[in-house]
Amino acid sequence: MPAFGRALNLAGGLRLTAAQLDAATAGPGRITELAADRVDRPDGLSGEEPQDTLTVLLGDAGSGRSTELAALAVRRAGAAEPLPTLWLRGADLAPGDGSLDDALRRRLAAAAHRSGLPEASPAELAERCADGGRPLLVVLDGPEEAPLALSAAWLAAGLEWLRAHRARALVACRPDGWEQLGPWRTAARALWLGPLTDDAAARAARRYGLPEGFLGPAERGHPLALRLAGDLRAAGVHGPVADRAELFDGWLDLACLTVARRVAQASGGQRRHRRGGPVPTGEDARQVRRLAAVAAGRLHEAARLMLGAGDGRCPPRSSTGCSRPRAAGRGPSARSTCWSRRVPATGPATRRGGSGCRACTWTSARRCASCSPRTAGRPAPPGPGPPGWRRCPRRRSRPPRA
């Protein structure tokens, strides 16, 4: 505790883990935002606390794995007797990490710096929590998204760390990620997330304001499809949506339009008509359409590069510049606006630890890449102006001349 020196006790450990969890992210939003989207389901982590040293939650892309983890973490932190939880993403792991201890140490140091608390080692924190009868739970979301494939030595060291310090781990991954867990597979208790039941899907549809028949039968039990359909419905789309491909196409179009509007607003400055008169106040529809087409091209290129990397990561701007074009408006403020500040807020991609970004879901990267007819892996060209203009389905390749 800060008032009693640097010695860590249970109360100080709970404050430190609460600070780390409060700043943790899952996809484009905070943990609390994702937890609010959870719907009760028979196969979910409804009220069960993981009792095993290692528990693995398996499910296909978009099945609600991260949502279940977020809801459990928020529930533990907000209980009458809070339980310590640390949140890690696979993208937070670094190539030089020897085990979980290294990644947790970075997260705890950052949380201590933000909250003004003394730094504590993960081992000390886990020991104090175990001594107080509240074992530390380490949540690892998407280990398959780590910068490098987790080696057998890393996995064995992580399991040994958990046992030595009486901590527990809850991991969520795709079925193909389960095959990469090596030593963890024999020690873990595996749980499986399938489609939502009819009752749970109906409750989720009502929450998102979806009318009957908005989604087809194959998408009604898919949590990610329901959430994306809710975004489309909130934007004024009346449906119905024929299939998942049309749903992803529509949602990506909406995301590109949102990015374009934010970039247009950030450009600022007083625009003038080509004949010299001031442009009427309000949205410049032509500029927004042009920026939306630029955003679509950049997202398609970024998705191809993410898929080429094999784990949903996009290389940093220094190597491609794929997802960070500058604003195509006029004036210094427009030229200095970085799109990477707008794209993560809309959902297709999110910032990751270090440089670069990654797709929020493997499915979104695949769908986004499949919408583009260009050659895979070709980097976007540098340069000012409306950079990296890309041909996109149902759009003209260049804006109309003024």
From TrEMBL:
- Region: Disordered; residue ranges are 266-285, 308-402
Positions with biased composition (Low complexity): 323-336
Native organism: Kitasatospora cheerisanensis KCTC 2395
- This chain belongs to which protein, by name? Uncharacterized protein
Q: Where is the composition biased (Basic residues)?
A: 391-402
